[in-house]
Amino acid sequence: MVNLIPAPRRLERTGGSGPFGGDVRTRVDPSLAPEAYTLTVSAGGAEIVGGGEAGVFWGRQTLRQLLGPDAFRRVPIGREPVTVPYLTIEDAPRFAWRGFMLDVARHFLPKDDVLRYVDLLAVHKLNVLHLHLTDDQGWRVEIERHPRLTEVGAWRRRTRRGWGEPVTWDERPHGGFYSKDDLREIVAYAAERHITVVPEIDLPGHSQAAIAAYPELGNADVIDTAALEVKTDWGINPHVLAPTERVLRFYEDVLTEVLEIFPGTFVHIGGDECLKDEWRASLAAQARIRELGLADEDELQSSMIRHFDRWLADRGRRLIGWDEILEGGLAQGAAVMCWRWYTGGVAAAKAGHDVVMCPQQEVYLDHVQSGGPDEPVPFGWVHTLEDVYRFEPVPPSLAGTPHAARVIGAQANLWTEAVEDRRRVDYQAFPRLAAFAEVAWSELPHPDERDFSDFEQRMNAAHYARLDALGVAYRPPTGPHPWQQRPGIPGRMHNQPRKPWHQA
């Protein structure tokens, strides 16, 4: 039995099996797509032909799976050659963007933990690591022009534990940030594994940490911005950036340094959950609306997004943001990351924008994995392993139309309000990230026709053992271990049913 995750496009057995002596030949064939590969294993060893170096790399990951779980340990522990099946695999990804978003703003993860996740993405043939670097609860990237962003903004005095009632607190200060060299190391480490790191600098909402560091960034004619601290609890925040030229110049400074670190095409600017009550109450913001000839506060936010779209385009980059950036109009070059079900992504694709699908109703991995009472910090909708395996990035309303090509990929997101360390990240991500990886890479049937029992069998037969070898603290299929539970930490479940996919 060959247990490959993600499932390849074509697998042909060419004979029996035999010991693998480690002879691996590789070459590039430009006639293949850049990430495509052919892997042939025979008595003479293995040959990997890739359309580019990325294709060769993905072929190596498949060969690694064939060599058994011990191939995923840091050093070899076996003394005898491993027996491998003789076969030919032809494979290529369905989507160019196969992403995972890791929120390091709410709970900071040390650099080594991020590097470890780069390796885990590579194992699963995922090729984008989206780092959520700034939010109300913390600023995690060093900016030399504005040092208080990390001196002040990277630290909060306490942290709310979980969601809901009763409200309880971890009274220990929490924080941390990545130096520019730390991030350069992460980017270089990822590039060696053909993974692009996409930074997110959130604006104009989700910015209280920045305002706490530099009060002049906030709407000082409405609130006492000097009294704001780095936010210690969760939820949508009314304190947003002021829509001024000074703020635009400040974030141009920030993004100038970000571009020096991250060479990839896309830069994420957030744009979500920007409450506009302060702008409505602000005489300065209302004057800005009149000055720019805008209709309302939605167009005011759109003007800020458009500004940075042009600014990034002038430097050879592309803006991507959450689907709220569609509100008030969106510059043509911008791409949309769709999180509020499929609606925004469908609208964006039909308007000619590239789309990455990551609907919270389907692939938010901070949401609970079962409805049982032992799940730690129950939150969101229930997303079982099977639910994630049946996720379909291209909704029915786009399928079979020219707009479907605008869906450039899919992403699973992991927010960390209730995810405090690496073990909790592992628990929330795995095994569901393995199911997502197969959806993002493989050409699968209609969601209702997918053979989940086959996927589950492959997980049980081989992939859990690989995760064990990698040291991943995943959720067992039978439910959480006692030490993975968090009794007494309140949660918050969504009380509205998930919309069925076929209505998308």
Automatic annotation (TrEMBL):
<comment type="similarity">
    <text>Belongs to the glycosyl hydrolase 20 family.</text>
</comment>
<dbReference type="InterPro" id="IPR015883">
    <property type="entry name" value="Glyco_hydro_20_cat"/>
</dbReference>
<keyword id="KW-0378">Hydrolase</keyword>
<feature type="compositionally biased region" description="Basic residues">
    <location>
        <begin position="495"/>
        <end position="504"/>
    </location>
</feature>
<feature type="region of interest" description="Disordered">
    <location>
        <begin position="476"/>
        <end position="504"/>
    </location>
</feature>
<feature type="domain" description="Glycoside hydrolase family 20 catalytic">
    <location>
        <begin position="95"/>
        <end position="443"/>
    </location>
</feature>
<feature type="domain" description="Beta-hexosaminidase bacterial type N-terminal">
    <location>
        <begin position="17"/>
        <end position="92"/>
    </location>
</feature>
<dbReference type="Pfam" id="PF00728">
    <property type="entry name" value="Glyco_hydro_20"/>
</dbReference>
<feature type="region of interest" description="Disordered">
    <location>
        <begin position="1"/>
        <end position="25"/>
    </location>
</feature>
<keyword id="KW-0326">Glycosidase</keyword>
<dbReference type="InterPro" id="IPR017853">
    <property type="entry name" value="GH"/>
</dbReference>
<protein>
    <recommendedName>
        <fullName>beta-N-acetylhexosaminidase</fullName>
        <ecNumber>3.2.1.52</ecNumber>
    </recommendedName>
</protein>
<dbReference type="InterPro" id="IPR015882">
    <property type="entry name" value="HEX_bac_N"/>
</dbReference>
<dbReference type="InterPro" id="IPR029018">
    <property type="entry name" value="Hex-like_dom2"/>
</dbReference>
<dbReference type="Pfam" id="PF02838">
    <property type="entry name" value="Glyco_hydro_20b"/>
</dbReference>
<dbReference type="InterPro" id="IPR025705">
    <property type="entry name" value="Beta_hexosaminidase_sua/sub"/>
</dbReference>
